[in-house]
Amino acid sequence: MSTRLTLTVEELNEYVRKSLAGDPMLRNLSLRGEISNFKRHVSGHLYFTLKDENSAIQCAMFRTAAIGLKFRPADGMKVVLRGNVGLYVKTGSYQFYADGMEEEGLGDIHLRMEALKKKLQAEGLFDASLKKPLPLLPMGVGIATSKTGAVIHDMTRVGWRRHPGIPFYLYPVSVQGAGAAKEIAAAVEALDRLDEVDVIIVARGGGSLEDLWEFNEEVLARAIFNCQKPVVSAVGHETDFSISDFVADLRAPTPSAAAELVVPQREQLLQTVEKLQTRTRRACEMTLAGYAAGLSELSARIARQTPERQFGVIAERVQGLSQRLTLLYKQVLEQKARALSELSLRITAASPRETLKRGYAIVRRGKTSVQSVTMLKPDDLITITLADGSAEAKTLRVLKEDE
Amino acid sequence: MADKKQSFEADLQKLEALADKMELGELPLEQLMDAYEQGAKLAKSLDERLKTAAARLYEVGKQKDGTLTVEESTVARQESLLDGAEE
Which of B1, B57, B70 best tests the A interface by mutation, with the highest count of A CBs <10 A? Predict the structure, then answer.
């Protein structure tokens, strides 16, 4: 009778882990290979794949060991690890736990990329001065990426969240494997010809350096460079750089980020427009307020200059003058009056009546006053006027003195 | 169609330039009123353009003679629209 042992998954994994741990061959060994899929976890632990031409193994390096590294491990680097082989019970995956790492030189892929980068840079394909600005509000966004996979969904979702009215034009391409670069280059060229599109994104989700390799091909770099419309390159994750990133007008860390960079927030633009309009309105109000203030100041100034006001001033002057005049007049008048009364006194004093009062008399013959005896002859009728009356008389004789 | 895009950006810049100019406070009243009217027109047209674009996903293809074809995509549009609408 054959007995079959039934284990739980955990029991199996634990068993294998122990056997691996117990094999002296798998302890404290050195392992040579090229880093790929390198990730630095927030905890500080490093996770990557170490590979050579035909094989690969998952590797982990914990923070305590990673801290001592004198260089920054990256995809494509050839390294020699020291450590132990183990099994991660939770996933059943067999991996290499590295305690130490030494750089053995840059990987071939990395070197090839560097060489091409230098060449294109020398040709001026990366010149910042040739970078085209993105349209503020694209009328259509061209995307060269895979028809399958999450990338196109993520991009449209992010884009439409920012502006629900932006149309996307997907040119489906394969984004990895031999020939993909040529396909993507053709897509860029086609989208460049499409009138509805005014900005183009070349996108690919995360992957290993090999997966992303097509974005390092010269044919794609040249297609992006020759594109009349601005091109955004969004390949892999934030830490991945490709030649297409350098030659593109803008590099986005991820495809979603590219959608974010290309599609403006509609609300923000609406606000911008509104703010600008408010500014024009304020400017009008300010200017009008300025005019109003100027007007009221002017009108105040005019009020100060009005005829009434002037009449007032004149009237005041006139009043003052007339007061002075009245005073003067009175003084003059009084003076005159005094002079007059003096005069009248003197005239009174000089009047014949006063003389008559002193005992003199006026003698008249008819209407003629008699001033000389020669004017008289006997029996002339004369009138003798005294102070208090007159008398009729007849001349008896005329006696002339000294004759 | 390229003009349409150009004019959004250009019109926004025009509006900004108007605001700048008006804020200097050196325009005669009549020119100021003209500038305000012009600004209001620009703002309205910018507003309209922001509100009338259509959310669509198209698929672009190329025929053998190089002619481009544009068709509404069946890929993801509904899903993306739903996702977009949720947020």
Answer: B57
Helix (H, G, I), strand (E, B) or coil at A69: coil
Per DSSP, A215 falls in state G
**Residues in chain B closer than 8 A to A169 (CB atoms):** 58-60, 70
- Checking if the pLDDT of A244 tops 90, the result is yes
Give ∠ CA A222-A224-A227 in degrees, rounded to 5: 105
Beta-bridge partners for A33: A79
Q: What angle do CA A242, A243, A247 make, to 5 degrees?
A: 125
**Domain count across chain A:** 4
- Measured CA to CA, the distance from residue A63 to residue A45 in angstroms comes to 4
Q: Please, which residues 122-181 of chain A have a Cβ atom closer than 8 Å to chain B?
A: 135-139, 142, 147, 152-153, 156-157, 160-161, 163-172
Beta bridge partners of A386: A389
Let me know whether B22 and B45 are in one domain: yes
CA distance B39 to chain A (A): 7
Cα-based distances in Å from B5 to A101, A197, A263, B10, B38: 54, 10, 13, 8, 19
How much is the pTM?
0.56
Domain total in chain B: 2
In a shared domain, residues B68 and B40: no
The region of weakest confidence among A2-16, A104-118, A386-400 is A104-118
SS3 for A133? coil
Q: What is the ipTM of this complex?
A: 0.76
Q: What count of residues does chain A have?
A: 403
From the CA of A229, how many Å to the nearest CA of chain B?
11
